[in-house]
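Hey L., structure's done. Input below.
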Amino acid sequence: MALLHRPQSEAVRPVSRETPTPWPGLVLAAGGALVAWCVHQLVPGIPMLTASVVLGIAVAHIPGVRTVVRGPARPGLSLAGRRLMRIGIVLLGLGLGLDQVLRLGWATVAMVSAVVAATFFGTVWLGRRLGLPGDQPLLIATGYSICGASAIGAVSEVSGSDEEDVAASVALVTLCGTLAIAVLPLLQGPLGLSDLSFGRWVGASVHDVGQVVATAQTAGPAALGEAVLVKLMRVALLAPLVAAVAFSMRARRRGVRTSSGKRPAPVPLFVAGFLAAAALRATGLLPHVALDWAHTAQEALLAAALFGLGSAVHLPTLARTGGRAALLGLGAWVVVAGVSYAGVLVTT
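Output:
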């Protein structure tokens, strides 16, 4: 019986599988952050991080460019959305003046904690009732209750959320936070808020730090200073919230190991870095020039990360849940604004 032999020239050769390079995507993310910075310089009312998300969404839908975004640039853009986000969150801790926050008093601490808890749990509950897919209720709740896109990025790191869920949540929270810049100043008079009380209300209810600054500055420097301090207190709650989500995920996936064979850490490394950075800032050892450079680096890293996240948004997919997501955004907005308004009236 004759045996069939494959000629040597036709022998099976090992398939070469090269790891996709992240550099095209990282360069694109850096370029997007640079353009966002230019937009902010030209129109200061548009926060740099907001511009980054919008630009990321735009390039993902421009014919010709979207082919690059979804193809060779995708690995680097995804890397920017994860790794650069973590580093930016660590640097965010250097902007957290714990000593200044504590000067606001325990009544304000209790008020801010109540606002965060009511917004977080109320938004998660409403999102589940509306049937939003994936981790969107969790992520939107985090963004509304803490600090917008940065908080969403932090929680998504420990929840292992789908990239599209992260991008859709960032887009919604960014949109609502941007609308607050125009809407909240119009309500100061009708609600009978002094400049100081208005600043506290803005700090307790608006999502992103840049949006807080843009909104509060309309009532003057006293309102702006109060808003930033209250906002920093909300940012301080980012670490315990992320740790709680990580603990919840760990309990839910008990016994599940990572691909490296190790159990996931109960507290992510970047959360520990955030707390360490905040503690270092509280010592007063860092000169102002170092803090200024750290703030610039934080803005640049978060802008590049949010550009990467924005580029993952697929508008047709987002439109399919757009009505429910918009309803959740409106409901969460009512909760955070209402609870924080009541808290401000009680504590001032």
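The mean pLDDT is 80. DSSP finds 17 helices and no strands in the chain.

-- N.
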